Amino acid sequence: xxxxxxxxxxxxxGKSTLFNRLTxxxxxxxxxxxxxxxxxxYGEGRVGERPFLVIDTGGFEPVAKEGIMHEMAKQTKQAVxxxxxxxxxxxxxxxxxxxxxxxxxxxxxxxxQVLLVVNKSEGMKxxxxxxxxxxxxxxxPYVISAAHGDGVHDLVNETLDLVFxxxxxxxxxxxEKQESGIKLAIxxxxxxGKSTLVNALLGExxxxxxxxPGTTRDSIEIPFEREGKHYTLIDTAGxxxxxxxxxxxxxxxxxxxxxSISEANVVLLLLDxxxxxxxxxxxxxxxxxxxxxxxxxxxxxxxxxxxxxxxEIKIDLDRKLSFLSFAKFHFISALKSxxxxxxxxxxxxxxAAAMINLSTPKLTRALEEAVEHQQPRRKGSIRPxxxxxxxxxxxxxxxxxxxxxxxxxxxxxKRYLEKHFRETFSLIGTPLRIEFRSGK
Length: 440
Ligand code: GDP
Ligand code: GDP
Prior knowledge:
Blueprint: E1 4-8, H1 15-22, H2 28-31, E2 42-47, E3 50-56, H3 67-82, E4 85-91, H4 98-110, E5 113-119, H5 126-130, E6 142-143, H6 152-170, E7 182-187, H7 194-202, H8 204-210, E8 221-226, E9 229-234, H9 254-263, E10 266-272, H10 279-291, E11 294-300, H11 307-320, E12 328-331, H12 340-354, H13 360-373, E13 385-393, E14 398-404, H14 411-424, E15 433-438
Parallel strand pairs: 1-3, 1-4, 4-5, 5-6, 7-9, 7-10, 10-11, 11-12, 14-15
Antiparallel strand pairs: 2-3, 8-9, 13-14
Helix pairs in contact: 7-8, 9-10, 13-14
Bound molecules: guanosine-5'-diphosphate (GDP) (2 copies).
């Protein structure tokens, strides 16, 4: 599972500047999809080969009893509880404040790994900028400049080393990787019917058998079979464990949802037809899109709706989730067990599309067809020349196009190519990525 790093600190110490720096390398195509809303508090970062999740906790007033500050403190507490390590940012220009001490007390009680990090330290001497902060008793501070990037790379590497060191100590046995069929994650906001759907898929008996206590931080994998096909349900979010021993777990966790998504082959996004599509739904959809996982959308609680309401929700879907048009939508009732068969057929075909193997000759032929039909535009005197394509990855399929001056290809043309490959190879239910490699 990807390690989780939480950024904590007073307002204005530079948390969101650091967050942006850590999560910057995003697929540009994802960035400008119309309608896609992003949750700027959760993101994925990568240093070298090592991916991680990062949470920006916003402002933190640990003492606030009510109001927005109290709400933010609650969110911060959840983030810290879910994190493997905490980067505690302080402001090197301002020096130590009483508020920093309060946060330190809270972090110490949390039992998490804490790295004390002095930000805004560009152009300052280590001893000067850190002197104040030894009083916090968190050891030698790290110094960075989030705005300029100084020290950020090393900081993340150290953080990840810490996390992985701790993890190895925790679990001596190496995880066994066995063939588990299609890895499926069911995600959605609270009360959309995830548990009910899991029950419908697994059957009550199986559910009881697998309802065993584990720690809240584990990812639980539940194998099941349906119509002769093997699946593994990734239940990082603890769908199954709620309401019994684990009542105390927060009902919804973005971090666990993100982890479920990243461990799955296919994500089943569940929506509630009795409610409007909310910002939270759109955020989750955005996470799935960024992950590149295959996707099937289930609109649940379709039973007992008036036809007016059904029309309404269809319009709402078109308007708010148009960026998911590559996926199949199913109207289902988890409670009445209707529509589940076709839904699972789409899961199978989305998986097949995501895992497709495309040979270089086939891809190159499709590329030639696309170019014949429409040439990429010149950029000044430069005409991009695409020569051949090969497949560079699965889940999502990546088409790598080789040629010359490919930097000059614009996003519109890239989208045109994506659509052409998608149609040529009937790729429904999976995102498709196009990458360019120029020879010269
Ligand atoms: P947050 O409230 O903790 O998320 O803080 P922000 O990231 O919004 O930063 C607050 C202010 O500090 C902004 O004006 C930033 O430009 C500035 N800032 C952030 N990082 C640095 C840094 O490394 N050096 C300097 N000089 N300013 C910074
Ligand atoms: P979760 O929080 O996403 O796991 O949601 P639950 O499975 O706990 O369901 C929340 C509520 O919605 C429960 O009261 C369910 O009985 C109800 N529910 C779930 N699926 C359906 C459905 O298909 N139709 C109707 N009418 N209610 C449903």
